[in-house]
């Protein structure tokens, strides 16, 4: 329940009169307003600036400093006001949160100062409203990044117990950590450059033998180039092996892009070594040398910009793919048209549609080599249309792609932000929603509401250990009235699932021990009703739902039955050979339990005698009216 | 080319959508209403001045324009029942409060209704409840209307209840209700039958007094 509508609670409670004629059960007693004083103004003095508000406004959020009794620590007796020695500007936003239910983040405030104030007043930053949340998160992230950068700069001292392997990995990933790493970084960079230059120079024709045409340098100085290549490959191999050794997760390292590039860069050499001058495969071997050019990609470890480019290309892949697809469509269309247009002319170069692809591409990209030209008039017309549309097709998407780059880059960041926001927002809403609903369920389980009835039993009132606020107790009373009206109870989602399974077993007319325990639960319990208030016998008031689930599945029910339940929590006395005795008087105490089920009025000695019989066929038919009525409370 | 056309068409769609929303919001903020004076309201209802002040503050907080329309009303009421769907019952409540049948509740209507519910005589409360149940305002409650109301109440419970809600539970509830209320067994409940039956039911009388000290 949002605290903003707390003022409407009296209305909601008044409207509950509409349920009264429909209800068949007596209603629980309403919580009394013990302190009947009128709503009063309280003064909050924050470093000299006085703020005034109603006490009720602050009571809306009882889990913050101002809403709880914690503010009494700051109460100044002489001046009868609450004094806080904090920043009054930030306090303005905080007080507005109580008034409007929305927490705003003022842009001019420093993020860490704001965080400190929020922490002091016990407000979690996640409830900042959507209008200011993005700004807050941006600033917060910048701040944490800056702090982390500072931390890293100061991280000169290595952790004393870093293994050699970890040191090596750190040296590889971040060359600035030590001089050794820096040396290594530059050496590998140098050798990559050398290797690439060698590959390039290898093919340059240098000088000519007197009786031969120009031969490339590679064939002239074979040994020299071979030595260079060997040296480079040795260095790369050593580097790769060292990285492989130092990697924290070798499998992941081997799958990473950079390591694949490394492998591809050095593999041709080894393959070349293995395959000697076998004429058949040397042709294929020569093509393998092409892969040596991949060594240039090793530079991306050295250049941040290359990595960013690669990442952006990857993230724009869909855009690029779509552009390619539309281009392909245009090419096919025009190639087909040109082919059929030029079919008539003799000695036409447009021998087939695929052959026309080349013409289309060259024309559309305005290259215009001129190796293929249309000769017929129709061909020329379509050719000109092709080149004009080529201008449009190519020129228009290019700025779109460029802006796509920047848009997608920023959008990715904003999408992540929004996703996190949405998750946080949904979590917030779920928390507040489940907070109010589970709060009611919890207060029920604590046995506070069970014994409250119209005839009133005031001693239970005094047993209220938990101090729920008046607002909460009134809201819970309202929900309790609704339960009584409809004669059904609110339960947790998981308990509902269990109950659903249970009703599936309801069709057994008798409680024979053949009730299986496949799902882990069997029929209803038949323990003796111990007292009016069933205090939970196990002391753990766990609120975790998985725990409840375990408890349910461990629920021990059929007292006379020997269940192979692997439960350690139940301490029911298992009578080994009792076969389905209905009077389970000798059953021990139930430690685990389900939810309390509505007591049929015929068995309920507390109910007023003239209450009409419950029209509730859903009461588990296993309940024999003769036995004692069950009343089990959940843990 | 297809890409370009696609992006352009998408863009125009978004723009028009935004324009519509802005118009709607402008419309809503135009309507504004201020209640009559405090003394007059105090005279017309059974509340004291302080109580009216508290009520108005809460009212104005949620509805700064001074009137509640059905959407806001349902939204507010739904906050109290997070488990289930309170919109149907809120709809009937809205109609019960909206005595002038013009689709909005002013503060006066709100306070009058509350005054009847919280400070009125038993007869007044029962009459108010009768009018809540009488959906079509014909002075009689028939089985269909009652089924609607009971179903709306059960909707507020939501899905996760124990025992699990079966489909015919509301119907049986309605049958029990008619058993109790319909004295001459003619299938409809008149106001007199209703008031008589309720006054005979001690439980109900006690329940009605439950909410005396709400304010």
Feature tags:
heterodimer, A: 635 residues, mainly alpha, 4-stranded mixed beta sheet, two-stranded antiparallel ribbon, 4% strand, B: 215 residues
Sequence-ordered SSE layout with sheet pairings:
The complex is a heterodimer of chains A (635) and B (215).
Chain A: H1 9-15, E1 41-46, E2 49-54, H2 55-58, E3 75-76, E4 81-84, H3 88-100, H4 111-120, H5 130-153, H6 164-173, H7 179-202, E5 205-208, E6 214-216, H8 217-220, H9 222-246, H10 250-255, H11 257-274, H12 279-288, H13 304-315, H14 317-342, H15 353-364, H16 377-395, H17 397-445, H18 458-462, H19 470-486, E7 489-490, H20 493-504, H21 545-553
Parallel strand pairs in A: 1-4
Antiparallel strand pairs in A: 1-2, 3-4, 5-6
Helix pairs in contact in A: 6-9, 7-9, 9-11, 14-15, 14-16
Chain B: H1 2-30, H2 38-44, H3 49-62, E1 67-69, H4 70-78, H5 87-97, E2 104-106, H6 107-119, H7 122-133, E3 140-142, H8 143-157, E4 161-162, H9 169-181, E5 188-190, H10 191-200, H11 202-208
Helix pairs in contact in B: 4-5, 5-7, 5-8, 7-10, 8-9
What's a concise summary of this model?
With about 625 residues, chain A is mainly alpha-helical. Chain A contains 21 helices and 7 strands. A two-stranded antiparallel sheet of chain B has the order 1-2.
Instruction: Please bin the fraction of helical residues of chain A.
Output: 40-55%
How many H/I helical runs of chain B?
11
Total DSSP E strands of chain A: 7
Overall average pLDDT of chain A: 71
| Most residues in contact, chain pair and counts | A-B, 82 and 71 residues
Distinct helical segment count of chain A: 21
Principal-axis shape of chain A equals elongated
